[in-house]
Amino acid sequence: METLKVIWLGQGGFLFEFDGTKVVVDPYLSNSLAARGIERMIAIPIAPEELQPDYVLFTHDHADHFDEETVTALTNQYPTCKFIGPSSVAEHYVKLGFDPKQFQVLNKGEVFYSRTFSVNAVPAFHTDAYSTGFVFSYQKHQIYISGDTLLDPELIPLLKKEMPENLSLMMICINGKLGNMTDVEAVEVVKALSPKTVVPMHYGMFESNTVAPDFFYQSTTELGLQCELMKPGTAKIFNL
Questions:
Q1: Closest Cα partner for 122 from 90, 164, 70?
Q2: Residue 173 lies in a domain
Q3: Residue 135's closest CA among 109, 153, 157?
Q4: Distance of alpha carbon 199 from alpha carbon 207, whole angstroms
Q5: pTM to 2 decimals?
Q6: Which CATH number covers residue 92?
Q7: Edge-to-edge strand order for the sheet containing 111-113?
Q8: Which of 88, 142, 176, 196 is least surrounded by Cβ atoms within 10 Å, i.e. has the fewest?
Q9: Which residues contact 37 (CB under 8 A, 6 or more apart)?
Q10: Confidence class of residue 166 from pLDDT cuts 50, 70 and 90?
Q11: Residue 44: which domain range?
């Protein structure tokens, strides 16, 4: 049985370790939104300089997913790191003055391959038209991270085309505000895709944009699925 080490960074952010390859998704590791009156509810779990990533991926160009302060720290600290995401994020990255050669564009329907994993950019329905979700393939297993998305009528049918019958792990947004599905809708997606293990995300970061995970946990558990409530900054080993 393969295992996978995962750290939730808060909001939609995660650190995955694929056979020693460190892959970060949507890290918001600053308090930059405080300038807009949106304070963090939780401490920064890991400083960007401590992540040591090989790849950093972004689902879309919003400040709690593509955070300029975090991205600047990572780019300066890790010049060999590859940054990956849709066109809207690539444009933002270049506007910050960074080398476009360090960024790999990954739009919906495209796949990025590395030595240890591949990642397929799958549909998401959000206010950034370039928004994506990601399906990572690792060994014989698949991990789905929703990014920010509404439960559009097309979402589940489109995802089913991309998902195997034995989806190992799912990370899904549940906050129900600002262009994201509700916890009730997230349960619908989980029921339709039936992952081995599911992790709710995109809650607990901002007081104006959160929801308690209790309903989601209870509902998915009643479906007979394993639901994990992760603590930001604490590593979890998943059996795939």
A1: 164
A2: yes
A3: 109
A4: 20
A5: 0.97
A6: 3.60.15.10
A7: 111-113, 118-123, 132-138, 141-145, 169-173, 197-201, 226-227
A8: 196
A9: none
A10: confident
A11: 3-235
